Amino acid sequence: MSVENGKNVLVVYYSHDESTKSIAESIAGETNADLLELKPVEKSGGRKVKYIWEGESVSMDPVPDLEPFLLDPDSYDLIFIGSPVWAMSYAPPVESFIRKTKLSNKNIALFCTHEGLMGIVFQELMSKLSENKIVGAIDFYDPIGSGVKYAANASANWARQVLKSLS
Ligand SMILES: Cc1cc2nc3c(=O)[nH]c(=O)nc-3n(C[C@H](O)[C@H](O)[C@H](O)COP(=O)(O)O)c2cc1C
């Protein structure tokens, strides 16, 4: 674990098609953070919901089991949490993360990627994480389609500001 600006920083994210991953990596690079990718465990049978977006459909348990974490999210001072928007909300693995970790008294910054229909993703996340201090929230419209470099710079600048605001 490394310390940046006096804070241990973690970037947690789920990504199905790499967009959110690209943002997570630029935030982590900028803030010298550890990265935790949320990976749902594929189970046969079980509860499944079909999430559909423009011809793409993904079947997933709304609260999927996750692969074990190799680090302890509770030991970080600042946690960036990122998700693609699915069905106007955040993706199921992020719900699993929230339930599993039951975070409180953390500085949390939220980011999401989407294709124009964000819904109330941040309001929902803020309400689920209400025992924490939300120190920032930013969304990116189709970061890969609209220019990876632009999104990487914008997310890095934002992450730097968030970190600076805590010192
Ligand atoms: C199952 C599914 C549902 C989606 N639902 C929405 C949505 O409600 N609103 C929206 O703007 N984009 C939606 N999208 C598009 C993704 O949010 C967008 O492509 C995002 O950047 C993908 O991030 P990722 O590459 O990290 O998975 C959906 C994509 C998928 C696969």
UniProtKB/TrEMBL annotation:
Residues 9-163 form the Flavodoxin-like domain. GO terms for molecular function: FMN binding. SUPFAM superfamilies: Flavoproteins. This is Flavodoxin.
